[in-house]
Amino acid sequence: xxxxxRFHQAGGPEVLRYESVAVGDPGPGKxxxxxxxxxxxxxxxxxxxxxxxxPLPAGIGVEAAGVVEAIGAGVDQxxxxxxxxxxxxxNTLGAYSTERLVPAAPLIKLPEAIACETAAxxxxxxxxxxxxxxxxxxxxxGDSILLHAAAGGVGLIVAQWAKLLGLTVIGTVSTEAxxxxxxxxxxxxxxxxxxxxxxxxxxxxxxxxxxxxVFDSVGKTTFEASLDSLKRRGLMVCVGTASGPIPPFNxxxxxxKGSLYMTRPALADYIADPAEKAELAAELFDHVAAGxxxxxxxxxxxxxxxxxxxxxxxxxxTTGSSIFVI
Length: 326
What we know:
This protein is α/β, with parallel strands linked by helices. About 30% of the residues lie in helices and about 25% in strands. The strands form three sheets. Strands 3, 5, 6, 7, 8, 15 and 16 form a seven-stranded mixed beta sheet that branches. Strands 11-10-9-12-13-14 form a six-stranded parallel beta sheet, sandwiched between helices. It has a three-stranded antiparallel beta sheet with strand order 2-1-4, with no helix packed on it. It holds the Pfam family ADH_N. This is Quinone oxidoreductase.
């Protein structure tokens, strides 16, 4: 019998339930996939707590890797026995499961050098890092960035990729242990925001100029410091709201602080085109397979321990990537 984590009402981690589910045969355009590992992402908490409103009851999770066991009519991009990974949004919701039916369109074949556990730990985070590094800004060697949550799953990949591009990386963390992890993955400078003034320290590190780009996945509590860390005509990239949504503000603020730019991108819009997704995935896989980017799986959970996994994630006890091992 297959199992899945589902929830019947929005709320805290305690609403998650480990349930038996029936998985039938795949219809047109779908496959039956046996999961080997499932990704744990902060975005999962937004579905669970109601930030992202969906019909309930529902499954949870949007990223996993496994083996194709059956294919439906019209599926020709993957075959039975293929190892694949996927990430997405509504179209892939329900990844917290031992096996499931899933549309074939989001599936990405895995090269031999990439294990399923590694894929589950990096597909969403890695593709996010890929578009941030390759699509958001025309980086050139010598540019500087401020990277919030530098010891998180996305942060560790972005830091390593940024160093490949010759960038100076200033990371922020909440503890000294996380600072050590961030430094080990490429951060040139690390700011502990629990006792340091982020914007002031950034100005000191950049001779008063500020950074070219800020990647802010924290949101509410870091927004002002992020703006104050940018150089004139710098770019603020809002990639998450871990501390809550950014309060409404007058766009005139961007002019006052140096004619700043601001964007709120979403991964879905950078992998919607199959050719672009394939290009980003190929570059990501190549870096990982060659060892230029390391994927650290720092937490492993059983699927039935999803409640504890979410508690750890939201209390910021985790570093790097976390997965469920099936």
